[in-house]
Design a protein that fits this description.
single chain; 152 residues; alpha+beta; Jelly Rolls; 5-stranded antiparallel β-sheet; 4-stranded antiparallel β-sheet; 2 helices; 9 strands
Amino acid sequence: MKPTYMVLYIICTAFRFNVAGQDCSEYHKYHCIYGDDSFTYSDQSKSALFRRGQSSEIKFVAHGEEEYYISVCAHRKFGDIQFRILEDRDERTLIYDNAADDFTESVIFFNPSTRNLIIEVNVPEGNEKDFYERRCVGVVIQYRKSETTDPE
């Protein structure tokens, strides 16, 4: 009889941890705002589980002569999420900071040449009670070929 109880205990314990976890793997697909239909979804888009005060970086390759649409979303309890787009080099040149743009959730920018970029996501601090609270944050990356006019 003891082995039966042991197996039952293991199953219940494993099930409890599985239910307690929050799956954020596709949060961005269903909660972030997408660009218009002229943009193509990039598989470089990501989601992750964050806590208050946490920062993270998403590295992606931006191809030349394309426009990019970046959207960052999170549960409203997190408040204003800051995101910055940086060039992935030693000097980390700042391309965009949404804090200077009233914490807007999305941006469109032109990328002149292929380069490695970083999207840095920062969740604001909260009070001690909220420190261990975890929520999903998503980043959508979309692109489109820039419309160039032929010289006449």
